[in-house]
Amino acid sequence: MNFTLTVDEPNLKSSEKIIKRVAVRAVITENNLILLVQSNKGDYKFPGGGLDVNESLEECLKREVSEETGYTHCIVKDKLGKVIERKTDEYEELALFEMTSHYYV
Predict the structure, then answer these.
(1) Smallest Cα–Cα separation from 7: which of 89, 69, 85, 105?
(2) Helix ranges (DSSP H) in the chain
(3) 2 near 82, Cβ under 8 Å?
(4) Closest residue by Cα to residue 102 from 86, 89, 84
(5) Which CATH number fits domain 3-104: 3.40.50.150, 3.30.1060.10, 3.40.50.300, 3.90.79.10?
(6) pLDDT tens profile 48-87
């Protein structure tokens, strides 16, 4: 399975600038349970985070899983897909923020 989902903020207006960020997320399951981490906003998400400069998606995923869960023996398997989210940037006027998150088993 490999999906691509695009989610745009309702009533999204055109922008002069697009700020892009790439992230990677791990879908970790065991015994029909899914591992999620609680964010600082109180919601739950798949472990993962933003890609650093000159870092591969696999390197990023291993680092983020280790940082967020303490699990250091992460084996990256199949890519499930990606989600592209677009919304008005919170910090820069007339800018659009686009986050592309890649999901892996």
Answers:
(1) 85
(2) 57-69
(3) no
(4) 84
(5) 3.90.79.10
(6) 999 999 999 999 999 999 999 998 888 999 999 999 999 9
